[in-house]
Amino acid sequence: MPPKIKYGIYPNPLPDEQGNTTYQVRHKPEATMDEKAFLDHLKMHNTYNTTMMQSSLIILKDEIIEQLRNNRRFRIDGLGTFQMKVGLKMQYDEEGNPVKPHFTDPDKITARDVEVQGVSFTPDPSFVSQLKDTTSTQNINGRGVAGPNRPYTREEIIDFLDKYLRENHFITRRQMEQKLGITAYRAQRWLDELTAEPYSHYYAKKQGNTWVYYRYGWEG
Length: 220
Known about the structure:
The chain starts with a strand and ends in a 5-residue tail after the last strand. The longest helix is centred in the N-terminal third of the chain and has 20 residues, at 50-69. It is 35% helix and 26% strand. It has helices at residues 35-45, 50-69, 125-133, 154-168, 173-180, 184-196; strands at residues 4-11, 23-27, 74-76, 80-88, 91-92, 98-99, 114-123, 136-139, 171-172, 202-207, 210-215.
């Protein structure tokens, strides 16, 4: 029996042109396989030399970084293509509060305003085709059951953030997405809007590749 791709059904935040609620589906992963688990899996199910595999992974990572730094995309046949993402650095006002960059004149943007913000991955069509060919799908909530992706008011979002941040001191976009049962786009949009407001109570700091959001004075 082929493995089943598990998904959930969620209402879109905005109605369609006729005012009807429409729905989307999202993948619901159960866990993450890290490098150690991957090597243990190879050791158990294959005859690969895991020490050589671990070294190969390190070499591959370093090579991808080198090629991206040299302004090249990095393509692995049958897998996909890695490409660097750049964007504008967060700016800060006179009091040190973070402010989203806002330029109305392209001539004002200099190299000091630009930073590497991540890496995108575009899968090879054959990779996606192979994934499709060997799997089936399963609704984790049961037929006709939709998950909670309802639109929230600004007051509800602020109430949630204040309660969560008072106890946990910080939140990520992913945590907000999971706690409220909303899309990544919707969670990021709320966080961007609230941190960009004049005299905002919230601010963001980048930790590694992740933006972490705080409320002033509640950092713990």
